[in-house]
Amino acid sequence: MSCDLAFAFVAGLRNCTVREDTVERALVHQVVDQGWLTPTYDFVFESLRVPFERIDVHLVEGNLRVLDARWVFREAVEGTVVDYQVLIRPSIPAPRFLVRRNLSKGMPDMLACIRGLADGSGSQQRRRQDLERCPGAPSGGWPDQ
Question: In this structure, what is the dihedral angle of CA atoms 52, 105, 136, 95, given to the nearest 10 degrees?
């Protein structure tokens, strides 16, 4: 787990600390602030990994009631297909439509950003387009863009 990369693809990430990281498991503390309409989320999650197959994410502690996610990777002719499910429920009052809107609006950009960072875009032009969708792109752009 790389917090440096997480700052690139997690919108509103203000703080990230990896507490533990092995091939199979990571324990990560994050603080995410996506603006004045939503609360600041401060939480620790566990990421359980089966390399090249799946990642399961579970809330350990923090001001979320629920954080569960699953990312499943499968090979296809075109490359790797990612299926994901994310369930987030804040413990502090936040309108559900805002949480849902932020997730559904931000997820395509996050996935495109990860694809670009993983050099899986297929072409330099597509990689540039993918990296432009990173919410935490460095000023001046990415190297080799």
Answer: -110
